[in-house]
Each structure stands twice: as structure tokens, then as C-alpha cells.
Amino acid sequence: MDAKIERVQSAPAMQRIACMFACLGVAAGCQRSAGSTPPPESELYRSDIENLCDAVVRSGADQLPAGEHALAIAGWLGTHLQTQEAHKYLVRIQPLVGEPKAAALEAEARRVGLPSCALAAEWRVAAPPVPARPAP
Question: Which residues are CB-neighbours of 136 under 8 A, at least 6 positions away?
Fold first, then answer.
């Protein structure tokens, strides 16, 4: 582990790395025995969605250059989400990008009673542009 890690320069590469860390957090974090996991509507799950929505500030990513937000957020979430449901929710929306991912997170935030979700705005800004389809 003494080898240097080269700095990743592109946002898509950072997003891929962040997704890997998020998946590791899902696998390693919040291990509970069957039956001890509270239902998704629980206060713990609501707290997890609140942490997810406020992760930009709570992780300190807002103090970093924009290209470094995803990695900081993913690392922070891996150690701060308390429920398997929240981890499963992240895995479920992970394939989405940009507006669909942001809209899904905002909908979940509203469902648990949150008025807004800052991370959804971050995902909208960080999403790569969708290439236009050529006319037939």
C-alpha cells in the first residue's frame, strides 16, 4: 500500500471511483442481523435520507473543488448511513444519472417528509451532458 495513487483528472472517472466506494460502503457498512432492520418508514431511515440529502455539507465536500465532491460524499455516506434500507436505496438509484437520479432522490426525500434535498441539486450539476441524437 506504499504505492502512490495517481490523481484522477476527469469528473466521470471520479464518479466511477465514488460509485465503487459507495458500493464498498454498502457491502461493509451497516451490517445487521435479520429481523433487526427497522422498516423504511422508520425515523432511522428518515435520518439516513436526511444525511444523504445533506451529504455535500456534512461530508465537507462543499469545501473541496467540484471534481472531488463525489469521492468525499461516497466515503462519508459509507460510514454515516444507519439502515440497510438506505444502502439498498442507493444501490437501486446508482445506475441513474443526472435528472432521473436527482428526481428519484427528491421524491424519496419528500416521501419521508423532507422539504428539499441538496444532493439532488449536486447530481443535476455533476451529470455529464447527454449527447444529442442525430436526425434520421
Answer: none
Locate 122 and state its grid cell: 449536486
Tell me the pTM: 0.65
Dist CA 26 CA 53 (whole Å): 17
Higher pLDDT, 72 or 39: 72
pLDDT tens for each residue of 102-117: 999 999 999 999 999 9
| pLDDT tens-place string over residues 84-94 | 999 999 999 99
C-beta separation of 58 from 51 below 8 A = yes
Distance CA 60, CA 24 (A): 20
98 with 68: CB under 8 angstroms?
Answer: no
Q: Alpha-carbon distance 43 to 111, whole Å?
A: 13
